[in-house]
Every structure is written in structure tokens, then in C-alpha cells.
Backbone:
């Protein structure tokens, strides 16, 4: 949790003083999103200068089993026009190749927000990376399939309180 608290402090330092719309990327980002916002709220309570904060949600779907096809399905993107002129903090669970986030950022930029920053709990070291790096991230992780802390494999394992590498045997067992 220390890393999440540190990220909250960095975000408030960089974006503080102005209203922030925190945009949670579902489904995998919800646990990290909730924890990060709890720390931001705690900083607000313990400071003489608080950060006005509202929340919104968007769902991106880019996985089937452990494969990420070339297309990204965006659910809830029709309401993004409300972000025009706003300071947006996108909160994601993991950045793998970066292509999914680049797709979302293109969509967001069409709505002309004031600024957009991205916070991700994890960044994967992969040769397939587009080179995209979020503004804030907690940990850099190896090129393995991870589950837990809301990261899933075919909707399984979101309920784990920790993050672990999914074995090939588990992939076979929970395959669609």
C-alpha cells in the first residue's frame, strides 16, 4: 500500500488545486482505483488545501483467454464529451503493450480535456511494447500473465487480495 500512497501524493502534488475527474478503467482497475482514491481523500482531509474530485468509469475489453487481439472494445465512451476542458486522471490496472491506453487516449483527446494524466498500478516489461509509459505507475513487472487484485483471467481471480503469475495449468483449467 505504500506505493499507492506515494502515487496519490505525486498526483495531488502535480494535479492538486484544481478539480480532477478520476476515470476508472474497468474492470481490472477498480481495486487500485478505490485504494488510490482513498489515499487522495485522506490527503484532502489532512491538508489545508483539498483537491476537488469526481469519478467516472469506462470499460475497455481487449482480452480473450491470455491473448490480446488487435481491436479494443470501448464501453461507455459515448459519455466522454463531459470531460471537455477538465483535468482527467485515467486509472488503469496494468499497461502491457500500451496499445489499449493509446486507443483510449486518442478517444479522450477528441473530447478536448484540459489535461490527461494516466496512473497505472503495473507496467509490464514486454518486447511487444509500443513504448507508451504512464505518467504514474507503481511497479514494473516481468512479461508474465498476472491475476489478482482485480486483474483476471476470463473473469476468474479478481477476488484475490494479492497479485500472482497464472500458471499454464490454470490457464488450461479456466480457458473459455
Residues:
Amino acid at each position: 500500500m505504500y506505493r499507492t500512497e506515494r502515487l496519490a501524493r505525486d498526483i495531488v502534488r502535480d494535479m492538486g488545486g484544481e478539480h480532477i475527474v478520476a476515470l476508472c478503467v474497468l474492470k481490472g482497475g477498480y481495486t487500485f482505483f478505490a485504494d488510490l482514491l482513498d489515499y487522495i481523500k485522506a490527503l484532502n482531509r489532512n491538508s489545508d488545501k483539498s483537491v476537488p474530485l469526481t469519478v467516472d468509469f469506462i470499460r475497455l475489453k481487449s482480452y480473450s483467454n491470455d491473448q490480446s487481439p488487435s481491436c479494443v472494445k470501448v464501453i461507455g465512451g459515448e459519455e466522454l464529451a463531459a470531460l471537455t476542458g477538465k483535468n482527467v486522471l485515467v486509472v488503469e490496472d496494468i499497461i502491457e503493450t500500451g496499445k489499449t491506453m493509446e486507443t483510449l487516449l486518442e478517444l479522450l483527446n477528441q473530447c478536448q480535456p484540459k489535461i490527461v494524466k494516466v496512473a497505472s498500478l503495473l507496467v509490464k516489461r514486454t518486447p511487444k511494447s509500443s513504448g507508451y509509459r504512464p505518467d504514474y505507475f507503481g511497479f514494473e513487472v516481468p512479461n508474465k500473465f498476472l491475476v489478482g487484485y482485480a486483474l483476471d483471467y476470463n473473469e476468474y481471480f479478481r477476488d484475490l487480495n494479492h497479485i500472482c503469475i497464472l500458471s499454464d495449468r490454470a490457464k488450461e483449467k479456466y480457458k473459455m
Remarks:
- The chain is about 25% helix and 25% strand.
- The radius of gyration is 16 Å.
- The beta strands are 20-26, 53-61, 73-75, 87-95, 115-124, 136-141, 146-147, 164-165.
- The domain at 2-141 is CATH 3.40.50.2020 (Rossmann fold).
